[in-house]
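stuck on this fold:
=====
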Amino acid sequence: MKKISIATLIMLSAYASSAEAYNVADAIKAARENNMQIKSKREDFKNAKTAKFQALTTVMPDVKATSGVGRAYLIPERGRLSNNDAAGINLTVTQPIFDGFKTYYTYDKAKNSIGSAEFTYKANKDSILFEVIRTYEEVIRTREVYEVNVTTHQVLIKHLKETQERFKLGEATVTDVAQAESRVAEALSNKTSAATEVSNAEALFFHVIGDRPLKELDPIEPEAVAIPTTLDELLDITLKQNPSLKKVDYDVKVAHNDKQLAFTNFSPQVSATAAFNRSSLTASSAETKNNNSYSIGVNIPIFQSGTEYVRVKQAKISERKSKWDYEETTNAVKESTIKVWNEYIKNKALLDSSNQAIAATQSALAGVIEEAKVGTRTTLDVLDAEQDLFQAKIQYKNAHSNYIQALFAMHQLMGTIDKLPVLKS
């Protein structure tokens, strides 16, 4: 039998411990590698960046070359037919000189379109990051709620057995037993429902993150997530940095570029062309001919079926629409910011109150149990006290989860969720 050294066992133990450690930063890293939406949006952004290079192609010359070979039949003055192999090559270079500033506006539109695509990508990425955090926290919450239900169910089973023993001794009634059985059945139903919620949360975890959630997930510490101290401060930062707002701001600029481009249809187009032609009969070098030409062309639009006027009108309408979209997005961001702040305040208060409620209901339950032993409290009183404690614990778990989600929702609105140290591994 092979012997394993103590050092090897320590190393294996350390590896196993590190392998089991999984926190929200690991979930974010896995999502970036596995989430299909992030990969798709990243490719959309890369594709949008090519628009700038496409715009630059309009100032580059257009070069075309043609060549051909054949046989030429000649009838000289003496009337004798002769034939020779013929060859020719033609090179044409056209250079745009002036296009009514279309190139400039196209390039400016490309830059603004890239800006819009960049913040579209960021907004989508931030949304997915928040979904990862929400999903991660939901697995933790549902598991904790399930454990509370399991504990409650076990306590009620124990209470039912005690009630049944007291019934045998004549210290409890049939009603007491029936009430205890009813609460056990209710607790079992709650436990089953909680188990279903855990299963659903873990399935969503795998879909969003791409990893199966481990048995132990490190909790997210709220203290590690700094936020503005007032709603006004939060609104000020959000209106300056929100990715969706920056995106629609670029959309307004793109719409303005489209209007500028529509007006270039009324401008003259100027270009220079140089053509180089060389042809020869291979049988006689004396027959080689060079024909070169140079020209400047000016294309002045006079009337283009009226489409140029329609394009200007459509561009003006689109520009006005983009400005209204910007105002609507601004109002929506303000509303979301206020809602998230109120959610943060509400759940912060619920955390404090539910924590106090747990301590109070635990004390009350202990008192009711003692009073029931001397006959001053009924079985129903004990069951009600246990139900109060159960509800206080569930309320605390829900408030804690919602509180953490509100913290990250603020950073999503501020556009800083991807910069939080707690999310970096």
The two ends are 41 Å apart (CA to CA). The CA atoms of residues 227 and 233 lie 10 Å apart. Residues 102-168 form the longest helix (67 residues). Confidence is low (pLDDT under 50) at residues 1-19.
